[in-house]
Structure formats: C-alpha cells, structure tokens
Amino acid sequence: MCLKVKYPAHITLLRGSHESASLTKFDYFYDETIRKYGNANAWKHFVEIFNYLGLAAVIDDYMFCVHGGLSPAINTIDQINGIKRDIDIPHEGPLCDFRRWFGCAIWCGPILRR
C-alpha cells in the first residue's frame, strides 16, 4: 500500500482471496491486529481498504490481470466494472460464484474445459 501512495500512477493493487473480512478472521490477521493494537480498529480499517481494491487491471491496453480467475458469468470488462465491490466477498454471484460454478473473480484457479 505504501508503494501505491508513493507511485499512484504506476502501482495498481488488486483484491485477492485473502482481502476479505471473513478470511482475515480465519487466517489470523484479525487475531494478530488484536494482539498488536489491543482492539479491532486497525483490522476494520484494513478491511475497509480491501473492500475498495480493484478486481482486475489492464496494463497498456494489452495485458489483463486478475488474482485468480473470473466467474464464467463474466464476459466483458464492463461487467467487471459493474460489480459492486465495496462489500465483503459474498458466497455467490459474480464476485464470488462458489456454489454454482466453483470459481469466482477472487478465488478461481484455472478450470480445464473439454
């Protein structure tokens, strides 16, 4: 995040699978901030920031970047731009389409199709 502040035009931060309130409680980030700061305020601020991180980036109109993959329901960049992202990662829908497709914009790894 410090590099983004220092070089805002050259650094793009993308939201990954661990940038969510629910997962940071599971992977001990929440516990670590409580131990270090004595309350959950720092954790709440991080989660707020996570909720506003971008889901994808296009570099030089050439390279498309995401953390893990896309929901099969997403076909265009305009659809990505339309996703409400200032929320925790839901359990369904294009932001996280776990139940139906076993993949999502945040979590998905490669899916082999035959």
Chain-wise SSE layout:
Layout: H1 2-6, H2 21-26, H3 29-37, H4 41-52, E1 56-59, E2 63-66, H5 77-81, H6 98-101
- Can you give the helix content as a percent range? 25-40%
Q: Low-confidence parts, pLDDT < 50 over ≥5 residues?
A: 97-110
Strand pairing plus helix content: what structural class?
mainly alpha
How are the strands of the biggest sheet laid out side by side? 1-2
The number of helical segments is: 6
| Alpha-carbon distance between the two ends | 40 Å
| Biggest pleated-sheet summary | 2 strands, antiparallel
- Alpha carbon gyration radius: 15 Å
Mean pLDDT: 76
Structural commentary:
It contains 6 helices and 2 strands; from the N terminus they run H-H-H-H-E-E-H-H. By secondary structure, the protein is mainly alpha-helical. The model is unreliable at 97-110 (pLDDT under 50).
Provide key terms for this protein.
single chain; 114 residues; mainly alpha; two-stranded antiparallel sheet
